[in-house]
Amino acid sequence: MIRHVALVGMPGSGKTRVGALAAARLGVPFVDSDAAIVARHGPISALFERGVAAFRAIEREVIAELLDGPPGVIALGGGAFGDPATRALVRRAAMTVYLDAPLDVLVARVGDGAGRPLLAGDPAGALARLHAARAADFALADARVETAPDPYAVAAAVAEACARGPCAECVPVGTPEYAVRIGPGVAARVGVKIAALGFGRAVVVADTNTAAFAPALLASLHAAGVTADAVTIPAGEASKGWDGLAALCDAFAAAKLSRGDVAVALGGGVVGDLTGFAAAIWMRGIAWVQVPTTLLAQVDSSVGGKTAIDLAAGKNLAGAFHDPRLVLADTDVLATLPAREMRSGYAEVIKYGLLGDARFFAWLEANGAAVLARDPAALRTAVAHCVRMKARIVTADPLEQGARALLNLGHTFGHALEAENGFGDALTHGEAVALGCALAFRLSATLGLCAAADAARVEAHLAACGLPVRLGDVPAPGGGFGADALVARMLGDKKAGGGRLVLVLVRAIGDAFVARDAEVGSVRAFLIGEGARG
Q1: C or N: which end of the chain has fewer Cβ atoms within 10 Å?
Q2: How far apart are CA 287 and CA 318, in angstroms?
Q3: Nearest Cα to 438, choosing from 140, 528, 224, 446?
């Protein structure tokens, strides 16, 4: 590290604790700018009595002195980065890392706001106002790291961000050992990262679409002293079944993969799901790493450790929860992704706004075209936001016993449509999810749960992006989908139980909920109204 690292963020984001841990990892000094101010000038509460402008001038002077010292980690006060002069000073001399924490976490951490003048009297209300006012300033940081309950995980992510430099992000998913690295060129570090995890042997699993990337990964592994072989499977959902699983396990056996080795999934959702499930059962479980090469895999299937194969009865019915040790979401590889696959992945991006973040959906309405056009800044923003949202959900609910079920918005309809189509290329997973989201919103509007205007708004954005929104938009067996066949598929979904449908429905854009007692007759009637055969 050749310059300072400045941690910025809201009060309660953990800058002091994380900063000390990150500095220890990096082998450099740590200092808290607020503590330095108190040491030089006395209590901050007394300094604020002179006025905010006077305090910011003192704060800027102290921070400038710290930046003149030897390289280290500096935790800045919550408002320091919001001062334009201080921000310019810090950005010239330091790599800035924004510690991003949800508002409810901040409120819980600051308590009654004691010792924080700007929070006096109404900590929760003051935090909400400050959070909204400072969001644009924090977006200017070089890197963003999502906070987690374990400060060691956050410190590890900060250290990793410093090793990569600006323009990349690291999102921890519950533990320091499992994090998602996002940004251009991060896949080139796969050898270094796997060697650092202690693995000396790897098998890279690619499909016929991603096999061209395998030599670069093998070269990275070999350069790091990791012995590695490659296995290629046929591209497409048809590989994700019992036969494909058996063939991959046979390949692991041929490669003499042992419990101390690692499997590397290089591809989209099919490669990731299949490799992860094979790793979960091979010798009762070996480690695995994901290098997702599609937008859909980067924002969704690579995060959370759900692995599975398809059965004739339905999608993803046989599988296991098996967390990868590492995910490298390299946004550069999306440059060669076909336009249809980009649109399919974008359906999962939209899903995150629809299920829990109305502001993100509004951002997508304005910037979705740029994401689909692979604009680097828009693409990185979208991928990182989705990963942060999913990481927060799966960390809180790793085995899908509660809030994680919201991630299935659009999927119960979508999986039924895929199964009716035989999991063929006529309907991609992302296209099925897009149509499923449109159906979920229209069903919610039909049931009086959400405004028809919200359903129309969702449909308009999906259609503008070239995604299907009506049953008639996608090929169907026998010239059309049957309502009874679709309902039967939905009742066989792994989330259903006791002969009842379980659907993710909505009250509004950004406000989804799990309906565990959806009435079969009303869903059937809805599907007939949507054009399915009665």
Answers
A1: C
A2: 19
A3: 446
Q: How far apart are CA 91 and CA 22, in angstroms?
A: 19
3-state secondary structure 331-362: HHHHHHCCHHHHHHHHHHHHHHHHHHCHHHHH
Give me the catalytic one of 116, 415, 461, 524: 415
User: What residues contact residue 167 under an 8 Å CB cut-off, 6+ apart?
Assistant: 142, 143, 183, 184, 380
Q: Could you tell me the pTM of the whole model? A: 0.71
Cα–Cα dist 471/481, whole Å: 8
Strands 201-207 and 262-267: parallel
415 flagged as catalytic: yes
Q: Is 418 a catalytic residue?
A: no
Q: What structural domains does the chain harbor?
A: 4-166 (3.40.50.300), 186-337 (3.40.50.1970), 349-529 (1.20.1090.10)
Q: Which of 408, 420, 431, 489 is catalytic?
A: 408
Task: Report the C-alpha gap between 34 and 24 in whole angstroms.
Answer: 20
Active site residue 144: no
